[in-house]
Amino acid sequence: MQVVFIHPDLGIGGGERLVVDAALALKKKGHRVSFITAHHDHNHCFEETKDGSFSVTTVGDWIPVNVFGSFHAVLAYAKMVYLAIYLILLSRLKPDVIFCDQVSICVPFLRLGTSAKIVFYCHFPDKLLTKRETFLKWLYRKPLDWLEEKTTGMAHLLLVNSHFTAKTFRTAFLSLKKMETHVLHPSLNTANFDRALQHPAKLLEPKIPPSSRRFMFLSINRFERKKNLALAIRALDNLRGEVTHENWKSIHLVIAGGYDERVKENVDYYKELQKLVESMQLRDKVTFCRSIQSSQKMALLKSSTAVLYTPDNEHFGIVPVEAMYMQTPVIAVNTGGPRETVVHNETGFLCDGDAEHFSSAMLRLIQKPMLSKEMGAKGRERVLKNFSFDNFANTLNGIIQSILT
User: Fold this and answer.
1) For 303-352, how does the pLDDT look when each residue is reduced to its tens digit (9 = 90+)?
2) pTM of the complete model
3) Domain named Glycosyltransferase subfamily 4-like N-terminal: which ranges (predicted)?
4) What fold characterizes domain 2-187+388-404?
5) How far apart are CA 394 and CA 200, in angstroms?
6) Where do the structural domains in the chain lie, given as residue ranges?
7) CB atoms within 10 A of CB 359
8) Are 73 and 65 in contact (CB under 8 A)?
9) How far is CA 26 from the centre of its chain?
10) Helix or strand (DSSP H, E) at 389
């Protein structure tokens, strides 16, 4: 079958990782796969989107991300409508299935203009991701929220990334609470991880003093305030008073993840985190790595004592799964998606979202270095059993086949 993915921005976030893996899974099952996107920067994307694994067509990049720092949602809607119209009127593609995510406004256009079945993947209701601090903001969001609910319900099939998101979806969209949702947990293309680890010389690590690598903690997330990266820094500061001077010299924190100069929040939050590090006198203990490549991420995961996963009520979170596959324990907030991936006291720790509880979990791994290896081994077993790429590919292929029959 011809499967076309419509995605607003093929960057390096968790949503992008999901759609790329979905495309790889369907290609593995013999389907013809293509992408249409509004933005694709070869310096800020996953390798599979630029190595010829599938065709990527970029249109509508002239539509700005924002206007004077505002109207992000309206412009995102405009981009997805433009992509849909391009597919219908100008593209030579004749899809059997169209897979779209993040912004549902394109769904009615696709249903009117094509005979394809529409699959919509809900990472999380967009209406819950934006604060309504003022009446004007509430007024601005009101029609967008209505459109999101109505257009999401027009998809032939709805997928969600976790049971947590499925529950949230039903409470957020009351008119759709009886709509069937299928949970498709994101997975790992473990073959890519395995290939990278066969060539350790190619794994790029940041320049961290060797003396600081005995206990290296890692935070991987986009530079966004909702990811709560400051929690990792505060936990490190709190840890300073709990360990011996000798152990403190061997501790380091790496904060890595997606960073886009076009996104004002990325730029501002990065500066805020730097100031926080300076104010706590942790400059020599924290390394920032922005927009890391896959090889860098794998190297960091492999060499870390634990991953600090700091978002609260994260929808799913692929990073804990990646960490566990690389045999690295995860310390995560005990809410949302991580409760479906991390097993407390077995593959890591699920904690209250404050510096004291995070630093206590970090301290346990420092005091018992073998515990990190034991938890890491159990984490890898859990990923292979529950989140393998083959299981993901088989489930998704079955879903795609089912909507046509």
Assistant:
1) 899 999 999 989 888 899 999 999 999 999 999 999 999 999 999 999 99
2) 0.81
3) 12-189
4) Rossmann fold (3.40.50)
5) 31
6) 2-187+388-404, 191-386
7) 24
8) no
9) 20
10) helix 389-404
